[in-house]
Amino acid sequence: MADLDFLLIGGLAALLGAIVQSSVGLGVGLVAAPVVTLLYPSLMPGAILVAAVVLPLATLSRELRHADLRGLGWAFGGRIAGTPLGVWVVAAVPLRMLGVLVGAMVLAALGVTLWSRRVPRNPATLTAAGLVAGATGTASAIGGPPIALLYQRESGPRVRATLAVFFTVGALLSLVTLAAVGRLPGEQVTAGLALTPFVLAGFVLAGPLRRFLDGGHMRVAVTAVVGLSAVVLIVRNLL
User: Fold this and answer.
1) Sequence-ordered list of residues with C-beta below 8 angstroms from that of 106, at least 6 positions apart, any chain
2) For position 2, what pLDDT does the model report?
3) Residue 1 has pLDDT above 70, yes or no
4) DSSP characters for 30-44?
5) Does the predicted model carry a pTM greater than 0.85?
6) Which SS3 state, helix, strand or coil, does residue 64 take?
7) Which of 168, 201, 209, 210 is nearest to 12 (CA)?
8) d(C-alpha 160, C-alpha 19), whole Å
9) What does the DSSP 8-state code read for residue 183?
10) If you ran DSSP here, which 8-state letter would residue 181 be given?
11) DSSP 25
12) What is the residue-averaged pLDDT of the chain?
């Protein structure tokens, strides 16, 4: 079972991450994954992936009708291809090298989206974003930025619902794949379940922030969270 220190520290990180994700569409991995990786590395990535399944379900209970299911079909194709790559990375590639590379790629992609008026969202870009998200999400529990960048100009409910569907299916796929190759210890699952009350509490507390962002501030929030996630990945893996 999760000890008291983990519940206090990991639970607070999960709570804060859930507030961000319930408002912007992504954030649990950004806030909680670095904390858990630093202090409880043996619980990664399973603990955060388990918690990452619960929060999107709460979002979908309110906003499922806004999800872009057609676009997600292409993204899921990429995610399926990227998940085994992420499992291979967990087993074979130094995670510090991967984290720095992924963070740099996300910052570069963010720069392109800020420079151009609109990033094209088509089968090619959706599939590519899904592939990158599958690999990085399975390896580090931070897989949202590539998809979020493609939907940053959409309304708040559409961003959150679309990302929620992607995260729910993607996290389940990552967990099943990790379990199939023996990379999902029971202690990681138990720790993730222990974080779920904090995640649900964050969803409830995020109500006022959701309403504020839906008033025309969503794109700024998405780009800020995506940029911060890239910086966290780089810094976390350089230290």
Assistant:
1) 145, 146, 226, 227, 229, 230, 233
2) 58
3) no
4) HHHHHHHHHH-GGGT
5) no
6) helix
7) 201
8) 12
9) -
10) T
11) S
12) 84
